[in-house]
Amino acid sequence: MRIKDLIKTLDRWDQRGFWAFTAATLKLLFPEDDRARIKALTNHQDAGIIERVARGLYVNPRARSLPPDVLSSLIPWLRPWDFNYLSLESALSEAGLISQIPSRLTVMTTGRSQTFGTPYGTIEFTHTAQMPEHLSGDVVWDLQRGMWVATPARAHRDLTKARRNLGLVNPVTASEALEGTSDGLLHV
Questions:
Q1: Cα distance between residue 89 and residue 102, in whole Å
Q2: Whether this model's pTM surpasses 0.90
Q3: Cα separation of 50 and 63, whole Å?
């Protein structure tokens, strides 16, 4: 795979809204010897033409179609077959129940627990046995991000169940937010 062929291909797919590629997709786009493709990808990564964000997942850093929140947008690429929703410290921080901003995006998943360090930040997946049909009313679709987000009450229950540090949660704000409403949603 020559550099000009890669750039031309990435630009063509960028015009169609594709900014991330799996290793399997790149194999279809560049059906050459595996060893040669891997070596070329490594060289092109060093040149900054393509970024490896996780094993088997690449991003076109020059893409105009890159979403505003690349880190959140990587979640379905990293876990395409699992149900995922933003929760734990990330959701509680966004709801104002934790004064600190988490250093990573914390996500509950029906897949296995795993942490991915990417050039865009860290995503921590924590396993849950909760199936989507049992979370009705506990998660809200965030249209801007294109993902589910836990309500403050759900995020607090997830934090407790996962045995994570509850000391970060502001007890006064949390009790008002979690107990002060009948639906468990934070009303501002």
A1: 6
A2: no
A3: 10
Tokens of 138: 């506990």
Measured in degrees and rounded to the nearest 5, phi and psi for residue 93 equal: -65, -45
For residue 106, give the nearest of 83, 130, 82, 122 by alpha carbon: 122
Show the beta-strand stretches assigned E in 81-166.
84-86, 105-109, 114-118, 121-127, 139-142, 147-150
Distance from C-alpha of 46 to C-alpha of 148, rounded to nearest angstrom: 35
Task: Please check whether residue 66 is in contact with residue 107, taking contact to mean a CB–CB distance below 8 angstroms.
Answer: no
Q: What is the pLDDT of residues 123-174, one digit of tens each?
A: 999 999 988 888 988 999 999 888 999 999 999 899 989 887 776 776 655 5
Tell me the β-bridge partners of 115: 124
Phi first, then psi: give them for residue 21, nearest 5 degrees. Answer: -140, 135
- Identify which of 152, 123, 120, 122 has the alpha carbon closest to the alpha carbon of residue 138: 152
Q: Which two tokens stand for residue 85?
A: 């929703």
Q: How far apart are CA 1 and CA 45, in angstroms?
A: 13
Calculate the alpha carbon distances from 93 to 7, 75, 77, 156, 172 in Å.
39, 19, 24, 11, 14
